Amino acid sequence: MLIENFSTQFSEVKIASGVFFEDDRGSLKKSMHTKKINELMGQVNEVLCTTSKKNVIRGLHFQEQPHEISKFVTCVKGKILDVFVDLRKDSKNFGKFGSKILNESDKLALFVPEGFAHGFSTLSDESIVVYLQSGDFNLNYDRSINPLSLDVDWHVEKPIISDKDKNAINFVDYANLN
């Protein structure tokens, strides 16, 4: 598995490139490898799998200190736009975001470190996204930023967003907290 920096601007965010194989039986996708995962995020505490319909936006989610988590994300069905936002107030990239299209037939996974919010939109009729988290979900530290409060082009028409995310804090208000 090859691990590369997402970009020079977001060198903490990584793109993992593994294997995608397809034949008459179906396909095999290996975009995450235990040794590399452990090097990047330590232990994996949770494995999540979401199914989403077209135009769904999930996020932007994060957990506050001391329960921050990193995520390793891959799309196993359909196509998504995976988005991350730097929330580290002491970072020169605070408030800046990046994105990567992930789909079922690529060999990619995106590593999003602690200190970043994460979300994605479904670009196909349906998507299945699998992600690993470095820590346990903690309701008391779980936070969201309204995904429409940043200038992200989610590539969807008529976004479908949960009430939790619709009612989440706008990024400008978040940026002005302490």
Task: Explain how this protein is built.
By secondary structure, the protein is mainly β. Helix content is 10%, strand content 46%. The protein has a single domain (2-175), classed as Jelly Rolls, CATH 2.60.120.10. The chain is built from three helices and 14 strands. It has a six-stranded antiparallel β-sheet with strand order 1-2-10-7-12-5, with helices on one face. Strands 6, 8, 9, 11, 13 and 14 form a six-stranded mixed β-sheet that branches. Strands 3-4 form a two-stranded antiparallel ribbon. A hairpin with an 8-residue loop joins β1 (2-5) and β2 (14-17).
Tell me the overall shape. globular
Helical residues, percent: under 10%
Order of helices and strands: EEEEHEEEEEEEEEEHH
CATH-derived architecture: Sandwich
Q: Please report which band the strand proportion falls in: under 5%, 5-15%, 15-25%, 25-35%, 35-45% or over 45%.
A: over 45%
Biggest sheet architecture:
6 strands, antiparallel
What's the number of domains?
1
Oligomer: single chain
Strand count: 14
In a nutshell, what does this entry contain?
This protein has helices at about 35-40, 165, 170-175, and strands at about 1-5, 15, 20-25, 25-30, 45-55, 55-65, 70-75, 80-85, 95-105, 110, 115-120, 125-135, 140-145, 160.
